[in-house]
Specification:
This protein has 257 residues and is an all-alpha fold. It has helices spanning 3-31, 40-68, 74-79, 90-93, 99-120, 126-154, 158-171, 183-190, 197-214, 236-245, 247-251. It is globular.
């Protein structure tokens, strides 16, 4: 294998990790609401979204393991890496907070996720395209649901409006990282796999702006944006999340049902 092929495979590995890790961490976060959601319908809906994301994780991390070629399975990658080896978006590791924060986090992610998967479904790489096409169908439902709820609660009671606005303000500084690029993104875009992030950002911004307007919520001004996940630099929240998620496999390596 040439150096060029090795570099492309390393980029494909990193990109698959980013997609899989983001789905995994957000799925874990959402699952924390099971049994605690404000209404029964939302309890069931969030459990279903979490299951969808964990299912997508299996596909993306399974692909990452295949590309890496070191015999690591999706479970190995999920349960036997420390936080510095994770590549999930900083947005998805943020604590649930109240229901408004959980919902706004989901809305920002869903908008990006659906756009990303729709673009990847047209990728030159057959494996990426196959997984993205399947996952995009689930992401479409997720986006419809979170968009509708943002509009309903933003333009709801005084309290729901205030809580939604506070959530938008608090989480906005994590939205910029969704579109920050590095050599992995650039290499895969040149190879016809990853989409143009500027185009993706414009579409994301248009959908988010329309939804916030209908929700009577104010779009925050541009400002400082957190970043670092693509280099394995995370907030303190990820370590606590992984400690809980990985406990069984760490305590009993290789345990089987």
């Amino acid at each position: 294998m040439s150096a060029t092929d090795k570099n492309l495979d390393e980029a494909r590995f990193q990109f698959a990790l980013r997609l899989g890790d983001s789905a995994l961490v957000l799925g874990q976060r959402i699952s924390e609401w099971v049994g605690h959601a404000p209404v029964l319908e939302e309890d069931i809906a969030m459990a279903n979204v979490a299951l969808d994301l964990v299912g997508q994780t299996q596909l993306w991390l399974g692909l990452a393991g295949e590309i890496e070629g070191k015999g690591r399975s999706a479970d190995d990658l999920a349960y036997h890496r420390d936080s510095g080896a994770f590549r999930n978006l900083l947005l998805v590791e943020q604590p649930n907070g109240d229901f408004a924060h959980t919902l706004v986090r989901q809305f920002f992610f869903d908008t990006w996720h659906h756009l990303m998967l729709t673009a990847l479904a047209e990728a030159e790489d057959k494996r990426f395209a196959e997984i993205a096409e399947k996952a995009a169908k689930e992401a479409s439902y997720h986006l419809t649901r979170s968009t509708d709820l943002v509009i309903s609660l933003g333009d709801g009671t005084d309290e729901s409006h205030q809580r939604m606005q506070a959530a938008v303000d608090d989480l906005w500084p994590y939205s910029g990282e969704l579109f920050m690029t590095d050599p992995v993104d650039e290499k895969l875009h040149a190879a016809g796999i990853a989409p143009d992030m500027e185009e993706l950002h414009a579409k994301w911004d248009a959908h988010v702006a329309e939804a916030l307007s209908r929700a009577t919520l104010t779009r925050p001004e541009a400002g400082y944006m957190h970043q670092g996940s693509k280099r394995g630099v995370h907030t303190e929240h990820l370590g606590y999340l992984l400690a809980e998620m990985q406990f069984l496999q760490r305590a009993y390596p290789g345990a089987k049902w």
